[in-house]
Amino acid sequence: MNLKELAKALNLSFSTVSKALRDSHEISIATKNRVLAKAKELNYQVNPQASSLRKQKSKTIAVVIPEVVNDFFGPVINGIESIAQEKGYHVLIYLTHEDMQKEVAITKLLQNGRVDGIMMSLSEETSDTTHLQALRENEIPLVFFDRIAEDIDAPKVTTDDYNCGIKATEHLIENGCTRIAFLSIAPNLSISNKRMNGYLDALKKHNITPDNSLILACTGDEAKNKTLIQQLFKSKNRPDGIFASVEKLAIATYEICAELTLTIPRDVKVICFSNMQTAALLNPSLSTITQPAYEMGREGAAILFKLVEKKGHHFLLENTVLNSALVARNSTFSQPA
């Protein structure tokens, strides 16, 4: 019997049961007595060691990310560590590998008092946020960055994904594209939806009717993604512009174009969200929306430590939005005949 099961048996929230067991003044005497009676009936035992750990400082924070094969998360971690070092804290990195069940397991592990706070970017599979709500109910300081959980009441640090979705699409339009494809990742991720909404609104603004056949719902399966992109280019009315929501889909596009002997940017122009340092070295150099990854890490960590130190709980719940930059390179510029 654990606390979650006890709460379910009582038909009360996790937070209410936890506070009742701690004899919190926020809970009525009647509710406390009911909780204690049910705990005794079900032989629920409070874990004094875990409770003690939660009251102490581990001088450690956790960073939960979906992957490391990505040029975005490296600078973010550097930014986080720069603040952690100033505070005298250690940083533990946990990888979900885009797997929701691993994310659930990690969050359960982190509820035992081994860290003082958590920074998190969601896996592409995460659709149910119950495990994240449990972190909040356990009063563990939590800050989301980039891939956020919209329904969890916690600070969030993001970039201007929607506006940059507009910028990227308009950049392709200004360079002659009329059939622009959007390569998305998991539809439940906030970043994917905001970037796609920017793409759709930019098309409408320029009197281009959105075409559902040009919106590819890609996944974490690289082979499947390449097949989808290949089919897109083999279609009767193939796109003349590609807006990839993440860098791995832009790289897949380059590979498929090489296989099909399509030339970038003559046959198709490509732009994507990416912090890839080698973008300028690709052939042709890749146009990108570059996010302020290092600054996101520092900003998120600064907010997290204010929560850990019990400062500014209320005003910190709002979103912090940092600006990304469009870096135009050869993959989107028309070459002379």
UniProtKB/TrEMBL annotation:
Tree of life domain: Bacteria
Domain HTH lacI-type: 1-55
Gene Ontology molecular function terms on file: DNA-binding transcription factor activity; transcription cis-regulatory region binding
Pfam families linked to this entry: LacI, Peripla_BP_3
Residue stretches spanning the membrane: none
SUPFAM superfamilies: lambda repressor-like DNA-binding domains, Periplasmic binding protein-like I
Keywords: DNA-binding, Transcription, Transcription regulation
SMART domains hit by this protein: HTH_LACI
InterPro entries, sorted: HTH_LacI, LacI/GalR-like_sensor, Lambda_DNA-bd_dom_sf, Peripla_BP_I
CDD domains to which the protein is assigned, alphabetical: HTH_LacI, PBP1_LacI_sugar_binding-like
PANTHER family on file: HTH-TYPE TRANSCRIPTIONAL REGULATOR GALS (PTHR30146:SF109), LACI-RELATED TRANSCRIPTIONAL REPRESSOR (PTHR30146)
Protein name: Transcriptional regulator, LacI family
Upper lineage: Bacteria, Pseudomonadati, Bacteroidota, Saprospiria, Saprospirales
